[in-house]
Amino acid sequence: MTHSTSLQACILDLDGTLVDTLGDFVAVLGRVLSDLGLPPVTRDFIERTIGKGSEHLVRTTLAHVGGAPALFNRAWPLYQQHYAALNGQHAAVYPGVIEGLELLRSRGLPLAVLTNKPGAPARELLRRKGLNHYFSHVFGGDDFERKKPDPLPLLKTCEALGTAPSATWMVGDSRNDAEAANAAGCPLVLVTYGYNHGEDIRAVAALQHVSRLDEVRLD
Ligand SMILES: O=C(O)COP(=O)(O)O
Ligand SMILES: [Mg+2]
């Protein structure tokens, strides 16, 4: 099967696809829990929980350590403050990402980022990692009414790019990306190195599964 003739633009996920941000989440949540006098959580727990946006991550972490739900009101500003300070310090661009973005750009494809991370830290992270210049649009989890796996943010990103969903590839690392892409009608490419709630992403159907972004086949 080939979609090369209809490929007009590409939307990429951020955490687990472009940048390995697990270390940032671990450091930030460590500080938040310590500020609140709560016990730490494991790196594995955080890796399984990333993907549904930062509010979800903070709420699920508090519940995991037995914190009252109302603690969220104290934890959330702390999380945002620590995230802004640490953003990118414990994060690395995955091998093959620069080469993959160069490849997509060499085909003249407009590129956008769509992440469930809030927009401000997402844009700042891309800037700090020197990736921002590849993208005409960067949308975060707070830019639209609903987050992935809902198709709405994908449809809105296609609208911003000016391309039909059927001609706009979604590249992501989790079933949130897959469900959103399938519901929006975007051809799906999955990277196999990211975070997928502790499950093997190769079990999720896609046009292609790639172990590096520069392995994506455009024809
Ligand atoms: O912030 C998250 O929960 C994950 O963000 P992502 O959509 O870039 O994977
Ligand atoms: Mg992701």
Automatic annotation (TrEMBL):
Key words of the record: Carbohydrate metabolism, Hydrolase, Magnesium, Metal-binding
The keyword Lipid metabolism is annotated on this UniProt entry: no
EC number(s) given by UniProt: 3.1.3.18
A Gene Ontology molecular function term of the record: phosphoglycolate phosphatase activity
Cofactor: Mg(2+)
Catalysed reaction equations from the record: 2-phosphoglycolate + H2O = glycolate + phosphate
Major enzyme class: hydrolase
Protein's pathway: Organic acid metabolism; glycolate biosynthesis; glycolate from 2-phosphoglycolate: step 1/1
Domain of life: Bacteria
Keyword Metal-binding included in the entry's annotation: yes
Binding site for Mg(2+): 13, 15, 173
Residue numbers annotated as active site: 13 (nucleophile)
Family classification: Belongs to the HAD-like hydrolase superfamily. CbbY/CbbZ/Gph/YieH family.
Name of the protein in its database record: Phosphoglycolate phosphatase
Naturally occurring in which organism (per UniProt): Roseateles asaccharophilus
